[in-house]
Amino acid sequence: MSWLSALGHTARAAFVVERRRLEPLGALRGAAGLAFVIGVSLWLFSPAVAASSAFGAYQAAIATYQRSWRPRPQLALVSGATLGISTFLGYLSASHLVLFLALLAAWAFLSGLSWAAGPTVGVMASSNVAIMLITITLPGSVAEAAEHAAMSLFGGLVQAALLVLFPFRRWRPHRDALADALAAEADYARRLRHDPHADFDPEPLMAAREAAQLTPREHRRRPAELSGARGLAERIRPVLASLADPALGAPAEGIERDRVRELLAAAAAVLDAAARAVRRGTPLSLDAPSVATLRTPDTGDVLTGPVRRAALRLKALLGDVIETADPAGRSTTAPDAHPQAAARADAVRAEATRATLARTQEPGAAGEPPAPGAHAAPSGPDAPPRPVAPAEPPVAAPVMHRPGLVGLVPVVARSMREELRGDSAVLRHAVRVTAVALLGYLIGTLLPFGHGYWAPLAAVMVMRPDFSRTYSRAVARFGGTLLGVFAATGVLQLTEPSVRVSALLAVACAALMYLLMRTGYAVSQFFVSAYVVLLLGMGGEEWTQTVPERVVLTLIGGLLAMASYAVFPAWETPRLRTRLADWLAAAGRYAAEVVERYATPAGPDDTRVRQALLEARAAHTAWQEALARAAHEPVRSRGLSRTSADDAEEAIGAFSRAAMLMEAHLPERGAAPVPGAQRLAQALRTTTEQGARELRDRRVPQWDEVRAALAAWDGEGVPDRVVRRGAGMLLAALEQVSEAVEESPPFAESRAGRPAADGPPTSATGS
């Protein structure tokens, strides 16, 4: 993409207004806290102190709107405390230019580096630096500076107290995250009915996992229906895929495929009902035909072998979902339900207590085909009991605790320390923020406007570690600022409000900003600018002192932010090859763990497989985010063409999917080991690591070791078609990866210039 096209795209993106679910009660709560702090400050102190404390309460409420699963009162307290410290230290050094510039440089660098700990910490740190530049100009003495700092902390305390007293569906974000994960599984099941190779976006599962990380206090107070369903959704996904896949599941056509479609439709209905119950906190309402489908006695007569095993596991997992989503047992069926629907619903619920029983009662649990006639055993509700080997209790999902505020400090420090390397995009962002903050402050000080902090404030607030968001936010901030300043100035000119009226108008602007801030950055900046003009007007400043400098210096700050990225960029495009290699290596470790479990059976709940899956999923997400950012950068990739990137992404996705299908049929703990699986697992682990290194070096990966392991395995004999076909799918996907990157010019040139397939490239240039 050319610079002109990139600038045009970012300009258009700057003014996009999205439709989001509004939270009027939350906006009213934040505005009420702001109004209370301003009122107390005006009563006890001066309008200047009120303006300063208003910034503290305003920023504390903003912090609670960040995308974070940490308790909101903690975010408000941290925001108020850090702003108070910044204000006091900034005022102490403001009279000495060199000392203040040193403090500003340190604060700006740390705020830029804090993005290593996540966007929530980064946004809060950047906001504190920006607001500090305003608040240090309001006190007139050290004692007043202490008052201003204390009132900033008081604003955070007030907002935190309101969050505790008026939580307004405190668990709604967690409910929504879990419900979205269940709904995504339901949609996946429906799409698999018509497309056995349908894609699945794991983002809802990742969000639900993040939401499940709680502090010890939250864990004790969490509603029962939010516990356990996420892990079940994770385990249901491979089972759904294995049912639908023609290679490892039901044939493409025939009676088995028809029954699988019925089971997928029933699974989708149950998962949708569970999602609604979790989201609303209401009793589970089950669809009677779907419940009847899950309890159909002749499933064992229609389905055989691996697909029957998958069907039994799906029924057991859905029973667990029903039990988890409705722990009080309040589930109902649709009004037009069959007379026996309630009994069938109870039967499905009871099957949750026999989750492991459903697996152990199936012959061939270790991978062998069922014995003749075994699949015809009666399995209906009236079937006689049959002896079963003792089943192991299901493995409980580990509790994922989130560190408290004190425990978070070393975590953030470690994340920041890990980014202190030359190739870090976060470190480059920190350097850019520091340079722009210092240069903007010096330019604002030298210009005759006064209030020179507007330039560095605007720059710090719009800068992000990636190109697209920095440029779009710069455009949006200037446009929103221009309109907001002139709107607020018009109100001041027409009404000439008193101090109290200005305060009320400022609170109204803040409330509208809280309400609409997630619809678009330009919208939020309109109300922020009006809020600041009204607040400074309450402090005694004339509009003629605010409007010209705010507009001009905001433009200067935005231009500085944009220029800094052009001069010292951190482009994502040249790193695409490395991101792809990281994903390949992570997917290889996941596949190796799955295959190794056939050699050393540890049961479907083995934590090593789950951990490898999470790492592969994180690497996939990092690749997708990098690809999305690179699509709008004004640079051209010389290491991986866009066509090759798309083909390689599809191939690695097929490789991961094959591993997931094999995961759905993992043998139980204590089952007979599969010969040759250990050798194949080791081959997958070593060749994908080597293949990742070859990708980084612009060489085409080779998979000879995997082929040799499969050939040796075939010589020994593989008893289960699931294992052998899955292994063949893994190799085919790896060969597709090589074919995809081979078409990219740098890889083709490297291959043509090297003496041997595994030799070093004759020439290579850095990205």
Automatic annotation (TrEMBL):
Residues 381-396 have a biased composition (Pro residues). Pfam families: FUSC-like (PF12805), FUSC_2 (PF13515). Its main location: membrane. Keywords: Cell membrane, Membrane, Transmembrane, Transmembrane helix. One of its GO terms (cellular component) is plasma membrane. Residues 332-345, 353-380 have a biased composition (Low complexity). It is a multi-pass membrane protein. Residues 85-189 form the Integral membrane protein YccS N-terminal domain. The chain crosses the membrane at residues 32-55, 75-92, 98-116, 123-143, 149-168, 430-454, 474-492, 499-516, 522-539, 551-571. Belongs to the YccS/YhfK family. PANTHER family: MULTIDRUG RESISTANCE PROTEIN MDTO, P-HYDROXYBENZOIC ACID EFFLUX PUMP SUBUNIT-RELATED. This is Integral membrane protein YccS N-terminal domain-containing protein. It comes from Streptomyces gougerotii.
